[in-house]
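Incident review: delayed structure delivery

Summary: a single-chain prediction request sat in the queue longer than the usual turnaround. Root cause was a stuck worker, restarted by the on-call engineer. No data loss occurred. The affected request and its eventual output are reproduced below so the record is complete for anyone auditing the incident later.

Affected input:
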Amino acid sequence: QVQLVESGGGLVQAGGSLRLSCAASGRTFSIYSMGWFRQAPGKEREFVAAISWSGGTKHYVDSVKGRFTISRDNAKNTVTLQMSSLKPEDTAVYYCAQSGSRYYTSPTDFRSWGQGTQVTVSS
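Output delivered after worker restart:
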């Protein structure tokens, strides 16, 4: 079982940037794809981005393409979400997750979750 701990959330003005980090421990980190999800108040959890085990393949939801960048450091067991040009609609709790496969296939493939970190973007 992997333990995932997110950090880096906070309050930022529209147009600003934040960097979210997720530290993993326990289950082998480097052989599984990782992802970020978010959940806004009153809405379902939404896929944001995913990265393959090696970092060579990345996927993004259309609404964040060109603004968010996912990356990973297998030597440090961390995955990062760099967010820029933030919008009020990006406000949500952001969750780090680990999938059961090397490559991202589906949002339903993620099996382990962190506790989440709040991101609030003011207008």
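Verification: The first strand starts at residue 2 and ends at 7.
Action items: add queue-age alerting; document worker restart procedure.
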